Amino acid sequence: MKYISTRGQVEPKGFIDTVLMGLADDGGLMIPEQIPVISPEELREWSTLSYVDLFLQIFARYVNDEIPAADLRELAERSYGNFRHPEVTPVKKISDSLYIMELFHGPTFAFKDVALQFMGELYSYMSRKNGDIIHILGATSGDTGAAAIQGVRGKEGIKICILHPHGKVSKVQELQMTTVDDSNVLNLSVKGNFDDCQKMIKDLFADLTFKKKYHLRAINSINFVRILAQTVYYFYAYFRAQDESGERKVNISVPSGNFGNIFSGFLARQMGLPINKLIIATNENNILERFVRTGEYQPGEFRSTHSPSMDIQVASNFERYLYYFLKEDAAKVSDYMNKLQTEGKIVLSQEDLEHVQRDFAAYGASNQDCLQSIIKYKNEYDYLLDPHTACGIAAYEQCSGPEEVCITLATAHPAKFDESIVLCEIEQEFPAPIQALFSMPQHQTIIDHDLNEVVRQLEAFYTR
Ligand SMILES: Cc1ncc(COP(=O)(O)O)c(C=O)c1O
Ligand SMILES: N[C@@H](CCOP(=O)(O)O)C(=O)O
């Protein structure tokens, strides 16, 4: 298996080189040259596997023996051994037509742990084995940063710098990132929004001299291994729903922002998993929902909502979908991305829009939808949704048919977003590891939205 760029200007790479490259050197995103297809017989065999065994089966199709099987097993077991639930990502039945897959049983109580626990182990393995210097640079709207820091804190040979939007993450997210006092961690709190942070890190990765000089490595979903690790739970979810749903079609509703999570679902479907509808659930930052409804992809005005981790206008992984949508024509992808840069939008023909609507359903939840879903599911099912999952539930209610079964991905634990839970006049008890954060000192550097200042901070950090 080789990996290529969506923009076609990178020589095909192996798995490890793809992980190390992060953002493709031509500014695109790395993707597998060919997506492996799993036969129905194999899917049947996979359907009873444990989470770790399923992970190993899927990864075996992508890593080309670049990591010996025994080592990969050890990395996976160590990663998922840190989860508080033996099933890693358990599925709960809410009603006859609704299941919730809880992706928040990892160390930082959000779905990012699923891929980032593994990435932390993988980077550490690469550093030990090859003596690679790993300088991680990432941007976060709150969850990726916390999970990435947790995945590598204190690990030898690794330094991590995370940019988050100042004052725009929840209190618990801020504490999870900034109470870590290991010397290999730097938190930059940027006066701007997540899109500003993501743009700055993409600019730094695109500066190949800087990237090479400081050995920059990515933990955001620009890194293909993040996408791959997230496909595992789509298989796992589908198999659990299939156990119960009989002949009914299985939909999956995904709270979406940077399009990484749902792109993993798209990849699983391309691999042969018969997911019926993939439902994109957004908040009021609804660029993806507008795209599916109208065929126009145009960043709008940034809004602060009750689901702050999805307050994203520029959905990074949209480019990966574009590549497959444009029948793997990298020149066309470059064209479309240039158009987005110069004209501020991409507009599809009616025929292309119909194609998109066959790939995805979508719903943009308003702030009111979000709070109403939290209140309704607490009252009717005694289940407390976090505000991102609540957007997923609102989308399930709009897009899933009466004869279908839907699994909504619960992307975070409600304790991370008590600000929104309080607005619903609901009291919750915090899990002990979250409660403990409130009495710990914080470490962060607040900076202006200024690329030169980020460079100064990074140079000082990486060379000390
Ligand atoms: C809790 C939560 N839900 C949903 C999302 C959206 O996921 P994605 O960016 O992969 O679309 C994020 C982060 O983006 C998140 O932190
Ligand atoms: N919601 C994310 C945004 C970054 O997304 P990523 O999947 O590209 O890392 C966050 O919590 O930071």
UniProtKB/TrEMBL annotation:
PANTHER family: THREONINE SYNTHASE FAMILY MEMBER, THREONINE SYNTHASE-LIKE 2. The lineage of its organism: Bacteria, Bacillati, Bacillota, Bacilli, Bacillales. The modification N6-(pyridoxal phosphate)lysine is found at K112. Pathway: Amino-acid biosynthesis; L-threonine biosynthesis; L-threonine from L-aspartate: step 5/5. CDD domains: Thr-synth_2 (cd01560). This is Threonine synthase. GO terms for biological process: threonine biosynthetic process. Belongs to the threonine synthase family. GO terms for molecular function: pyridoxal phosphate binding; threonine synthase activity. It comes from Paenibacillus bovis. The keyword Lyase applies. It is an enzyme of class 4 (lyase). It catalyses: O-phospho-L-homoserine + H2O = L-threonine + phosphate. Its cofactor is pyridoxal 5'-phosphate. Residues 2-80 form the Threonine synthase N-terminal domain.
